[in-house]
Design a protein that fits this description.
This protein has nine helices and 13 strands. With 261 residues, the chain is of the alpha/beta class. It has one domain.
Amino acid sequence: MSGRAAVGLVNALPLDDLTDIIVDLSALSIGVAFPIVRHLYGTASKRGLNLHLVVADEPGTDAGINATASDVADTVHGFKGGWGLDAQSRAARLWMPQLARGKRAVLKRIHKRVEPHAVCPILPFPAAHPRLPDELIEEYGEEFENTWQVDSRDIVYASERGPLDLYRTILRMDDTRQRVFEQIGGSQIILSPVGSKALAVGALMAALDRDFTIMYVEALSYTVDLAKLDEARAARPGDLVHVWLHGEAYGITGSKEVAGS
């Protein structure tokens, strides 16, 4: 609902005489940010505009903001992909959740909705906090061993502040799975970016490229630990990640690359 409303507001903005559109994702939820980007990506493609994404990479700040999640897991507006289509009914479903602290309940709801045949969790590495991948594996130990049945070969490692790393990894996995499952119903990848915003941009890029399904639980409200935020910023000031998503830098291809950070 919020994503659809946000797209309506953005669609009403005058874009005449513009050459570049910049979307700052830092303070937006996935359910709002992703639909806006999808809409503007289509607009930029039709009008020949440059579309830029920027996001403040501050994992410590993200950790100090606690969301009260909805009880419903659903596709993000504009990112339904092949979800629910008869053509995908026999497809081998691969769920790729981006792991983050304190998201077990959210991911449990998504897992129940997706009912995947296989799970490949995404862990941030390298990360601002070097031991974060190990701590996440420990936090989700029960899911790894029992519910998701994940072993070390199923884990996807992607740079915490490098969206292109995850983007390329997801596309390589999709290419491989399409060949493997072509004769037995096909492959379907479902993404759930619930961690750092910078890493989530990589999932967004892949979903735009291949029309992947994004399954998510929207937040209803937020509480903020201001002391924790101040401490995190003092320990490690955030970096700005910039993605030039579409435009003249890539000629007519519209290829997605990280232009700078």
